[in-house]
Amino acid sequence: MPPGIRRLAPYEPPVGGAPFVPLPRPRPVWVPLPVPVPPALDAARLVSVVLEVLDGRRVVRLLREVCVPVLAGRLGLLVRASSTRMVRPPRVCHPSRFVGEISVTVRRGGRVLAVAARVEHRGGRWWFTSFTVLE
């Protein structure tokens, strides 16, 4: 049996009529993901606990509740009787969601000193990983 031949459908646009122009598709709108808020950090309380321990007004074992063990041991050796007060509220910068960098000026005796600290959020709490009093 010979193959059957069929006519193709016309593929040229009709002459004289308005050509069909497809409408452009709307472009998707880019919506940035919301930046998650870092966990609440009470920098003034954390810094004041460490300063009170360093001044001898609180017991050294409190350092284990706010500092990583290596830092708690190192700061425990720096305890001396003095009086330290915060001059201004601490400034906090969050380089990432679970890391905070704290800077604060304190008055010890007749001098004003700077304190720089780094905290990390682990296990539902903020822990000091670095604490330096710049004298």
Q: Mind sketching the topology for me?
A:
Blueprint: H1 43-54, H2 63-66, H3 69-76, E1 84-86, E2 91-96, E3 99-108, E4 111-122, E5 125-134
Antiparallel strand pairs: 1-3, 2-3, 3-4, 4-5
User: Judging from the principal axes of the Cα atoms, what is the shape?
Assistant: rod-shaped
Strand-residue fraction? 25-35%
Low-confidence spans = none
Helix-strand pattern, N to C? HHHEEEEE
| Tally of contiguous helical segments | 3
How many β-strand stretches? 5
* Ends apart, CA distance between termini: 104 Å
Helix content: 10-25%
Q: Could you describe the largest sheet, including whether it forms a barrel? A: 5 strands, antiparallel
Computed CA radius of gyration, to the nearest angstrom: 33 Å
Can you give the mean pLDDT? Answer: 88
Class from secondary-structure proportions: alpha+beta
Report on this model:
The chain is an alpha+beta fold. The protein is built from three helices and five strands. Strands 1, 2, 3, 4 and 5 form a five-stranded antiparallel β-sheet that branches. A hairpin with a 2-residue loop joins strand 3 (99-108) and strand 4 (111-122). The longest helix has 12 residues, at 43-54. It starts with 42 loop residues before the first helix and ends with a strand.
